[in-house]
Design goal:
The protein is an alpha/beta fold and about 280 residues long. It has one domain: Luciferase-like domain (TIM Barrel, Alpha-Beta Barrel), CATH 3.20.20. It is built from 9 helices and 10 strands. The strands form 2 sheets. It has an 8-stranded parallel β-sheet. Strands 5-6 form a two-stranded antiparallel ribbon. Helix 3 links the parallel strand 3 and strand 4. Helix 1 packs across helix 2 and helix 2 runs parallel beside helix 3.
Length: about 280
């Protein structure tokens, strides 16, 4: 099982390039960054975590600029979108950004995606909350065409374009792993239907383990192998026993939350997580 970290890359936290270097130095396999383009001040959509929305949600750097900064100063650590809000992004532009980061990092991108929860944020991008999952599916399928075809075209309900040329193509073939967020039966079905792995939030380990069994059953029902859909636990509890339980269950990767704090506060946390990873192996 691999160990990684994740942090909201904000303007008042340790820089993402510095974080990536420090994580790589300590032997972490990956570093993930969440995304929000903005946060509407209306706050109509309640924060899923309960209470007030943490301030870092409104302060994140652009996701792909962050991933590029992290990749440019490292050589081995994987850089992850955790998660990219595909429903708020043009698919042709996003396909170009994904391919460019994968190309420039020599194949180190992990492409986590999700539908999001903030309805008014999506509305500002012209996205209808009720149909966001249909939109996400089409945008992912369209991007796959762009990544894998010299002349790509797509004609769906939400995404339509005639043949185009777009390079670079990703280094990873056929494309970087697409990891679907969400912890529902429908989310796990999407993993099997058009993704390459599952990236649930790890607040409830028992729920993750139950979801893994459901994912395996869905894979077998589709005539596919469960091992072809690795699980990356997003924000796993910093508990060695939980880590060992995840490893025994076949979890491929756990990512530990790092608070968006200045460098001198983050580095001791990374040291502690490195010791935790060593103890859990």
């Amino acid at each position: 099982m691999h160990f990684g970290i994740l942090m909201f890359a904000t303007d008042d936290a340790i820089r993402p390039d510095e974080l990536a270097v420090e994580a790589e130095t300590r032997g972490f396999e990956s570093v993930f960054f969440p995304e929000h383009t903005h946060i509407p001040t209306s706050r109509r959509s309640p924060y899923p975590g309960g209470g007030e929305l943490p301030k870092e949600y409104a302060r994140t750097h652009d996701l792909f600029v962050t991933l590029t900064a992290a990749a440019a100063v490292t050589t081995t650590i994987k850089v992850g979108a955790g998660i990219c809000l595909v429903v708020e992004r043009d698919p042709i532009t996003t396909a170009k950004e994904v391919a460019s980061v994968d190309f420039l990092s020599n194949g180190r991108l992990l492409f986590g995606i999700g539908g999001g929860w903030n309805a008014e944020e999506m509305e500002n991008h012209g996205t209808v909350f009720a149909t966001r999952w249909k939109l996400l599916r089409e945008r992912v399928l369209a991007m796959k065409e762009i990544w894998t075809k010299d002349e790509a075209a797509f004609h769906g309900e939400f995404v339509r374009f005639d043949p185009i040329w777009s390079w670079p193509k990703p280094v990873q073939k056929p494309h970087p792993p697409i990891l679907m967020g969400g912890d529902t039966p429908k989310a796990r079905q999407r993993v099997v239907d058009f993704c390459d792995g599952w990236i649930p939030i790890g607040f409830d380990p028992a729920r993750i383990l139950s979801g893994m069994k459901d994912l395996a059953e869905r894979a077998r029902a589709a005539g596919k192998r469960p091992e072809d859909y690795p699980v990356s636990v997003f924000g796993a509890p910093a508990d060695p026993e939980v880590m060992r339980t995840f490893a025994a269950a076949g979890v491929a990767r756990v990512n530990l939350w790092v608070p968006p704090k200045p460098r001198d506060e983050v580095l001791p946390i990374l040291d502690g997580y490195a010791k935790l990873a060593a103890a859990a192996r």
